[in-house]
């Protein structure tokens, strides 16, 4: 079965092609036959296309035009043309899976896309304005390029649909609940993948594990996972809630927003920009939303960069503590995504707070760029895992499983 995966972001569209030939899914992610990415630069109408294949062939092009759907379609044509050709015809693709950030209350599991699903994704764009419209563009690009091929929506909010009401409902007026204002959680595809991979690495049954998964990229979130289900998470009604992030503030006193609206010349739009684009590591450090650049500035004696690091670590430890309280214990702490996978310093800083629980990190293992490895000491009471998150493979798995059910 040939499965094409599209992972839409606000400024990029990533894609990859898997070929599953066995009757059962492989436990570990196979290497994609083909990977493509469209990056939209700040120059209007310019797209950077990057493609590579499993055999090492590559393609890089800049193309012009304002149609993002046309740019995605062009990327897909590289599947069947020149050096990056891996298919004779696009009709060889059996199913296409899409990462959709927000599924709302009604879409808790992956579904085959029809007009009703497309309309629901569009309606939820107000809750995920940077991502749901981009997912729709990808769906429509596939319709134009591949016709009526089966398409599947995999929702980032789906994994967190098991949150108990005590964790999901905000303590505002009850009519908020009736309006769908609740904690949805995000990065669910990544958290779910890492939970399953953690069980494989530890040789344990997932339903017997209590896990905290730390997705630390430009966006950051934690999930408390018990018996294979998400029971708490840090992101909320939107991806703005929770931990300090690259350029997002995370949780703040809502009274600050009321104060700014009353006492300053902020509008809803300008507040949205400040909270999402000019806060977090970028806002405090004044250097960058990228953690390595903040660390480099600390080495040069930059006070604001050091303050940004201290806040980031404090918020991360506080978040882990809240997840611990929900779980009532911990078998493994998992780090994933950009900083989670690549920064030994952030893993060390996060783990030091929990030495009183008998959590001991092996400093040498931690420094060795570990991937899918347990970096706790042998006598640690809690395992510490670094896992390379593979959202695309998780989406492909769900496509494969859904197609088996529908056959």
TrEMBL record:
Reaction catalyzed: acetate + ATP = acetyl phosphate + ADP
Origin superkingdom: Bacteria
Pathway terms, separated by semicolons: Metabolic intermediate biosynthesis; acetyl-CoA biosynthesis; acetyl-CoA from acetate: step 1/2
Location of this chain's protein in the cell: Cytoplasm
Gene3D superfamilies, A to Z: 3.30.420.40
Keyword annotations of the record: ATP-binding, Cytoplasm, Kinase, Magnesium, Metal-binding, Nucleotide-binding, Transferase
Catalytic residues, chain numbering: 156 (proton donor/acceptor)
Site (Transition state stabilizer): 187, 248
Reported cofactor(s): Mg(2+); Mn(2+)
Pfam hit, one: Acetate_kinase
Cofactor: binding details: Mg(2+). Can also accept Mn(2+).
BP GO terms, sorted: acetate metabolic process; acetyl-CoA biosynthetic process
GO CC annotation, single: cytoplasm
MF GO annotations: acetate kinase activity; ATP binding; magnesium ion binding
Binding sites annotated in the UniProt record for substrate: 99
Binding sites annotated in the UniProt record for ATP: 14, 215-219
SUPFAM superfamilies with a match to the protein in the record: Actin-like ATPase domain
NCBIfam families attached to this UniProt entry: ackA
Family membership: Belongs to the acetokinase family.
Purpose of the protein: Catalyzes the formation of acetyl phosphate from acetate and ATP. Can also catalyze the reverse reaction.
Quaternary organization: Homodimer.
Protein name, entry field: Acetate kinase
Record organism: Sphaerospermopsis reniformis
């Amino acid at each position: 079965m040939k499965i094409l995966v599209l992972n839409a972001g606000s400024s990029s569209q990533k894609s990859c092609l898997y070929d599953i030939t066995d009757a059962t899914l492989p436990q570990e992610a196979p290497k994609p036959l083909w990977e493509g990415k469209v990056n939209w630069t700040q120059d209007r109408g310019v797209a950077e296309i990057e493609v590579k294949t499993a055999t090492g062939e590559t393609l890089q092009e800049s193309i012009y035009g304002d149609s993002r759907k046309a740019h995605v379609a062009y990327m897909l044509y590289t599947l069947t043309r020149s050096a990056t050709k891996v298919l004779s015809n696009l009709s060889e693709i059996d199913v296409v899976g899409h990462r959709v950030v927000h599924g709302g209350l009604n879409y808790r599991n992956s579904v085959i896309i029809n007009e009703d699903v497309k309309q629901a994704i569009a309606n939820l764009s107000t809750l995920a304005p940077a991502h749901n419209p981009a997912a729709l563009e990808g769906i429509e690009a596939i319709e134009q390029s591949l016709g009526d091929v089966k398409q599947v929506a995999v929702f980032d909010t789906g994994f967190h649909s098991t949150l108990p009401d005590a964790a999901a409902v905000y303590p505002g007026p009850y009519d908020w609940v009736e309006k769908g204002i609740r904690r949805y959680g995000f990065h669910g595809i990544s958290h779910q993948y890492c939970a399953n991979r953690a069980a494989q690495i530890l040789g344990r049954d997932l339903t017997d594990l209590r896990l905290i998964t730390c997705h630390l990229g430009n966006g950051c979130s934690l999930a408390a996972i018990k018996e294979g289900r998400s029971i708490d998470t840090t992101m909320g009604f939107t991806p703005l809630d929770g931990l300090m992030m690259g350029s997002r503030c995370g949780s703040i006193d809502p009274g600050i927003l009321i104060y700014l609206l009353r006492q300053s010349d902020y509008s809803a739009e300008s507040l949205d920009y400040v909270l999402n684009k000019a806060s977090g590591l970028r806002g405090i450090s004044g250097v960058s939303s990228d953690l390595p650049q903040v660390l480099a500035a600390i080495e040069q004696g930059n006070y604001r960069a050091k303050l940004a690091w201290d806040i980031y670590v404090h918020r991360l430890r506080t978040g882990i503590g809240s997840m611990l309280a929900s779980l009532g214990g911990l078998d493994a702490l998992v780090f994933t995504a950009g900083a989670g996978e690549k920064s030994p310093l952030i893993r060390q800083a996060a783990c030091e707070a929990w030495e009183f629980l008998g959590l001991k990190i092996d400093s040498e293992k931690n420094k060795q760029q570990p991937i899918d490895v347990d970096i706790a000491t042998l006598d640690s009471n809690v395992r510490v895992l670094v896992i390379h998150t593979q959202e695309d493979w998780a989406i492909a798995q769900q496509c494969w499983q859904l197609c088996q059910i529908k056959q």
